[in-house]
Design a protein that fits this description.
alpha/beta; 3 strands
Length: 125
């Protein structure tokens, strides 16, 4: 296996775990509704990486718009606690596959996609 074959994946938490998920990281602040903790197979739950309650409420409200959400969330990720959690995920991703798990109905326009982009952008530098 090549040394740089590891990647960052995004899946919905409600999908069954896959053997190739690697390290399974829940990136939602709230535990997913209707899911037993024993069924989730979560390895990490770094709440410091989740959008603030205020940002989440704004995004899901009438004013919420994805590009502005992405900009604000990336700013939140620069805070010391979030930056440290990001560094931890980068270190993990350098060694093995990590799968970011979310309950979002459409992960492509959620904080998970922003997080995936930040991780891939920085690991490729």
């Amino acid at each position: 296996m090549p040394a740089h074959s590891h990647d960052v994946r995004v899946r919905r938490i409600y999908e069954p775990p896959s053997p190739d998920d690697g390290v399974r990281v829940l990136v939602d602040r709230l535990w997913p509704r209707g899911l037993a903790k024993t069924d989730a197979h979560i390895d990490e739950w770094p709440k410091a990486l989740t959008p603030s309650t205020e940002l989440r409420r704004w995004y899901h409200g009438p004013e919420g718009e994805y590009e502005e959400f992405r900009r604000r969330y990336e700013a939140e990720l620069a805070a010391p606690e979030a930056a440290a959690a990001l560094d931890r995920l980068r270190d993990l991703a350098a060694k093995e596959t990590i799968t970011l798990l979310t309950a979002a109905k459409d992960p492509a326009v959620s904080h998970t996609a922003v997080l995936e982009g930040v991780l891939e952008r920085r690991s490729g530098e």
